[in-house]
Amino acid sequence: MFDIINTLTEKDIKENFVAIGTYIDENKTPYHAVIVVKFDTVIEHIHYTGKEILFDDIYDETCFHKITDTIPTALIPSFIVMCKNVMKNANPSYGYFYSGEYYDQNGNHFSEKAIKERMTCSGFCLNLLKGYLEEDYLYYQEWEKSGYPSENYLKNYAKRNGLEIDDISESHRRISPLEMLCSAYFKNLPIRKFQIDSKKDETLEYLKNY
User: What pLDDT band is residue 131 in, cutting at 50, 70 and 90?
Assistant: First the structure.
């Protein structure tokens, strides 16, 4: 393989790039999705922690990434501008939801669903990518309502936030950091779930043996 790079310790094939990244835990399992940006020798990542959006330095050697070919090198400066606009204007809250929402170039959020600006770390990456690319990054409808923390997650979330289950159930899905990392193998949009699934096992194996 392996186009997946340890962000701090290995040199990538390009001097400037945008990449899909993730941090791995003590079991070497991906747990936090990020977008890595390298430009003019500076390497940073933009990500949603569940509390705030940060555009900052890579934290440690548990961050891995793969370059995405969906954003050409020449467009990196404009992507960075968008990231900074999102930093200024976005106000997400945490939840296992995604149904095509996005941020525009000015950092304003757009959603046609009741769920509005609710997302995970992966969902934040999708909001950012869709807004910049101006088309769906993933064929998100193929991710069914599975993989969330508990059986009653949706019911409890709706009650806690004063929402109706029927209004938010269609947006309820989890796209994992592993799946986001694997998405970087593909360029034609929207990326399909079966494509990502084809890369999951070998990617996990690589990370566990790193």
Answer: very high
Written as one letter, the residue type at 42 is V
Query: Closest Cα partner for 65 from 34, 43, 42?
Result: 34
User: Rounded to whole angstroms, how far apart are CA atoms 202 and 9?
Assistant: 21
Report the 10 Å Cβ neighbour count for 125.
27
As a whole number of angstroms, the distance between CA 210 and CA 206 comes to: 6
**Which amino acid would we find at residue 36?**
V
What is the DSSP code (8-state) at residue 138?
Answer: B
pTM to 2 decimals?
A: 0.95
3-class secondary structure, 48: strand
Residue 24 has pLDDT above 70, yes or no: yes
Rounded distance between C-alpha atoms, residue 140 and residue 191, angstroms = 9
Q: Is the pLDDT of residue 85 over 60?
A: yes
Annotated domain spans of the chain: 5-203
